[in-house]
Amino acid sequence: MKLVRSARQMARLSLRWQRRGTRIGFVPTMGALHAGHLSLVRAAVAQNDLAVVSIFVNPLQFGPAEDFRRYPRPFRQDLRLARAAGAALVFAPSAAQLYPPGFQTRVQLGALARRWEGQSRPGHFEGVATVVTLLFELVRPANAYVGQKDYQQALLVERLVADLRLPVRIHRLPTVREPDGLALSSRNASLSPSERAQAVVLSSALIHGATRIRAGERNAARLIDGMRRLISEAPASRIDYVAIVEARTLEPVWRLRGRVALLVAAWIGRTRLIDNLLVDVP
Amino acid sequence: MKLVRSARQMARLSLRWQRRGTRIGFVPTMGALHAGHLSLVRAAVAQNDLAVVSIFVNPLQFGPAEDFRRYPRPFRQDLRLARAAGAALVFAPSAAQLYPPGFQTRVQLGALARRWEGQSRPGHFEGVATVVTLLFELVRPANAYVGQKDYQQALLVERLVADLRLPVRIHRLPTVREPDGLALSSRNASLSPSERAQAVVLSSALIHGATRIRAGERNAARLIDGMRRLISEAPASRIDYVAIVEARTLEPVWRLRGRVALLVAAWIGRTRLIDNLLVDVP
């Protein structure tokens, strides 16, 4: 497996592959790889001529009060895991490589970027959209793989690719979960044992909501109430938002129909976690 | 010469050319082609396997009070001129083709987009950067050709391409002028005969400034004063800005050295014109 640190070298390699007709599968990550990332890498390996994994903790997508410095960076372990999953190349640039002096371009989205994570984390999606556009240009993948866990981010990347006509197909893969239901996240490593035990309330609340929908409940306010109550039972929890939204626009729904997404974001101690579940209302 | 109206068809053609190794030279325009545009088309024809000209009056780059509706659209004549200059394809999409329902992505630049035209025309460069990114993705050119006349726009496109690592080389070609010095512009067609005669003050002011620099003047304020006085002599003129700036950053300079750009923007009657001149200070 090749390790590339230089943006110029990455661009040169991918242009050469493109000219040869080599199809690249790409998994953009911030490192701290877990089984969720690795399921994406394995899909990229299986469906393409070669798989590229990027590891870049993107400063642009962290707010000033957020956990950029604290974000885990187990780089040697990431390389081992990427290699074991079959990646042909890890692209791990420095911030100065991606954003050299004078860099001043930003990619922004409208309605999709304003709600939920966008409202709680101002500037976050601008950072995501900018780095994703840049990485897609550098890596030139035919296919890119993102996790369902960051649902709003996945929709945003899909929209961005459609709007700017980037010649890449986005594959959104299922959230990988711990046996108790907790969605895998690099941030789970920041949880204390007690917080880790309590963090299960996010996925429990989603399942609770989905179960009540299947049992016939169609009133979003009542469902959200029940989900909030369940999360609040964890003493270390502080809810950011619990929402039921139209699955493609992320606009809130009041009376459920069609495909909806249940969204939760909550602090467990000092760690902010998100999770979601898609439900087809019968 | 082929005429393509569909974005999907344009993307399909350019991907096919790219796979074959066909080098595309691209000239993005808003139509109303004049000899300045045609010099770009001829360069694109000469330096590439084939030349694509886009004709698209981009609503995103016009302010609500600007001349979007009034902007000239002599489409049949444009096709004839593009063909005569050797273009292999004209891409002339509708706004709905480039910005289908749900479109919400914007590309923005920082410092380069804020001053001068950016300050006078809020949102203008966001519209330019967005459509240029989109057109580059659709046309996938190896080389793109822009005019020196829109100097700030040219710098912005160069920056955008560098920042997002778009695999295209930008060629900035000299401003083409009328015999009396007036820079060619599609907007010149809106001038009355009397306004047309007066419009020469923009280029006269630039030449006046450059002449005084060559004669030893290094004080920007004095130079700007002289240029403003010259433009004001035209009764139909109303100055927007006259500036002397560092040629790459567009930041104002007070004492001239190195390469500077002289920038002028003024209304002549109802028509807003811009012009510029690069001067290497001895």
Notes on the structure:
2 copies of one chain form a homodimer. The first copy, chain A, is α/β, with parallel strands linked by helices and 282 residues long. The first copy, chain A, folds into 2 domains: 172 residues, Rossmann fold (3-Layer(aba) Sandwich); 88 residues, Pantoate-beta-alanine ligase, C-terminal domain (Pantoate--beta-alanine Ligase, Chain: A,domain 2). Chain A contains 11 helices and 10 strands. In chain A, strands 1-4-3-2-6-7 form a 6-stranded parallel sheet, sandwiched between helices. In chain A, helix 7 crosses helix 8 and helix 10 packs antiparallel against helix 11. The mean pLDDT of chain A is 97. The interface between A and B is medium-sized, with 30 and 30 residues.
Count, helices of chain A: 11
Number of domains as seen in the coordinates of chain A: 2
> What is the terminal separation of chain A in angstroms?
47 Å
Uncertain residue ranges of chain A: none
Q: What's the story with the biggest beta sheet of chain A?
A: 6 strands, parallel
Broad CATH class of the largest domain in chain A: Alpha Beta
What value does the average pLDDT of chain A take?
97
Task: Give helix and strand order of chain A, one letter per element, not per position.
Answer: EHEHEHEHEHHHEHEHHHEEE
How many extended strands of chain A? 10
Briefly note the structural class of the backbone of chain A.
alpha/beta
Kindly identify the CATH topology of the largest domain in chain A: Rossmann fold
Largest interface: A-B, 30 and 30 residues
Q: For the CA atoms, what is the radius of gyration of chain A? A: 19 Å
Globally, the shape of chain A reads globular
Helix proportion of residues of chain A, in percent?
Answer: 25-40%
CATH architecture of the largest domain in chain A: 3-Layer(aba) Sandwich
